[in-house]
């Protein structure tokens, strides 16, 4: 299939904050030198490694997801592909154009939906779209025609003359998608598009994205919501600490998850000792520890719960909560990283 996006050995190292002079003010906008880097971000050679040799390939017309926790490198990847962040090394191509050497050509071929809606609040909905069209040399008349068609398509045509403050969070995000599509890009990027939306608005936005995908558009979305990735994406890249852990369809990825059932036990006490006791039980195929949670995999699932509880109590710990989970993207993520996707 024709390729819309390719990355080769993509790396991004952010410079570490400079040392603070004794008695002097801090000169960096980064966190204080003594603070730990963001969760999931590795420190490498004095810098913060956000991406470490990322190789991706996205087909034309594909709905592609980047799934991972905060600090995994998802937003950095989108930043590089949309020319807002310069890679430390490696190559990236979008719609056949090199993001480093052909950045203007790339920007003409992409639409971007930010995590937080950023419309011009001094303009109404349709004016926001018309103003955006001017950046791409679209006449005001043509921009207005396209804008009204997009607003109607996304069920906010009646809000064309409304100020941004009059729109709900979900309506503002649909306005951002309309803005991103006004110049008819080849690739649409969405960075955590449903963060902060209530469940009803999230489902409505999913319907919008499904319609766009049905039109044959290439869509790249970052998310840390398992259900969202599972419901919408043709293929998923699971990333953590700037590295690609797995890439395939949601169904194929879930098939890689270990065990028929995962039993999550929230523990009070020594989780490592409790995990060791659980590993010794017949029928338990694997046990991982994530903070104070024991994640046990077993074919018989719920039948082993009483036995697991007794094993935990025998080492002086106590089970506070139990949850059963069938093989899922989350259980695969835990098996790959040893921790939950928070």
List its traits.
elongated; 342 residues; five-stranded antiparallel beta sheet
What does this structure look like?
A hairpin with a 2-residue loop joins strand 13 (284-290) and strand 14. The two termini are 34 Å apart. Helix 3 crosses helix 4 and helix 5 (169-181) runs parallel beside helix 6 (199-214). The model is unreliable at 25-40 (pLDDT under 50). The strands form three sheets. Strands 7-8-9-4-10-11 form a six-stranded mixed β-sheet, sandwiched between helices. A five-stranded antiparallel β-sheet has the order 2-3-1-5-6. Strands 13-14-12-15 form a four-stranded antiparallel β-sheet, sandwiched between helices. It is α/β, with parallel strands linked by helices and 342 residues long. It is 32% helix and 29% strand. The chain has eleven helices and 15 strands. It has helices spanning 74-81, 103-108, 125-135, 140-153, 169-181, 199-214, 226-232, 250-256, 271-279, 305-314, 329-337, and strands spanning 3-15, 42-44, 47-59, 63-67, 89-94, 97-98, 110-113, 187-191, 218-223, 235-240, 243-248, 261-268, 284-290, 293-298, 318-325.
What is the fold's blueprint, element by element?
Layout: E1 3-15, E2 42-44, E3 47-59, E4 63-67, H1 74-81, E5 89-94, E6 97-98, H2 103-108, E7 110-113, H3 125-135, H4 140-153, H5 169-181, E8 187-191, H6 199-214, E9 218-223, H7 226-232, E10 235-240, E11 243-248, H8 250-256, E12 261-268, H9 271-279, E13 284-290, E14 293-298, H10 305-314, E15 318-325, H11 329-337
Parallel strand pairs: 4-9, 4-10, 7-8, 8-9
Antiparallel strand pairs: 1-3, 1-5, 2-3, 5-6, 10-11, 12-14, 12-15, 13-14
Helix pairs in contact: 3-4, 5-6, 9-10
């Amino acid at each position: 299939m024709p390729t819309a996006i390719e990355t080769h050995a993509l790396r991004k190292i952010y410079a570490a904050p400079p040392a603070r002079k004794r008695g002097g003010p801090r000169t960096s906008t980064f966190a204080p030198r003594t603070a730990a880097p963001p969760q999931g971000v590795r420190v490498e050679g004095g810098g913060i490694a956000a991406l470490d040799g990322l190789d991706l390939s996205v087909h034309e017309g594909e709905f592609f997801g980047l799934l991972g926790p905060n600090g995994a490198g998802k937003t950095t990847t989108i930043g590089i592909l949309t020319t807002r962040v310069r890679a430390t090394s490696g190559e990236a191509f979008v719609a056949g154009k090199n993001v480093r050497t052909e950045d203007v050509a790339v920007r003409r071929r992409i639409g971007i939906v930010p995590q937080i809606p950023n419309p011009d609040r001094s303009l109404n909905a349709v004016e926001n779209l018309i103003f955006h069209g001017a950046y791409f040399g679209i006449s005001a008349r043509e921009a207005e025609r396209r804008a009204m068609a997009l607003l109607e398509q996304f069920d906010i045509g009646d809000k064309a003359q409304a100020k941004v403050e009059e729109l709900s969070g979900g309506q503002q995000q649909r306005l951002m998608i309309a803005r991103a599509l006004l110049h008819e890009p080849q690739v649409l990027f969405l960075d955590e598009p449903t963060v902060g939306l209530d469940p009803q608005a999230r489902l409505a936005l999913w319907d919008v994205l499904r319609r766009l995908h049905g039109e044959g558009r290439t869509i790249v979305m970052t998310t840390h919501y398992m259900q969202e990735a599972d419901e919408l994406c043709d293929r998923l890249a699971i990333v953590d600490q700037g590295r690609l852990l797995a890439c395939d369809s949601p169904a194929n990825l879930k098939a890689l998850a270990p065990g028929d059932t995962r039993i999550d036990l929230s523990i009070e006490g020594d989780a490592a000792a409790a995990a060791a006791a659980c590993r010794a039980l017949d029928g338990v195929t694997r046990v991982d520890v994530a903070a104070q949670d024991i994640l046990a995999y077993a074919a018989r699932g719920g039948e082993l719960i009483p036995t697991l509880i007794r094993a935990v109590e025998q080492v002086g710990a106590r089970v506070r909560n139990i949850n059963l989970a069938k093989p899922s993207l989350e259980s695969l993520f835990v098996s790959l990283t040893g921790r939950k996707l928070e």
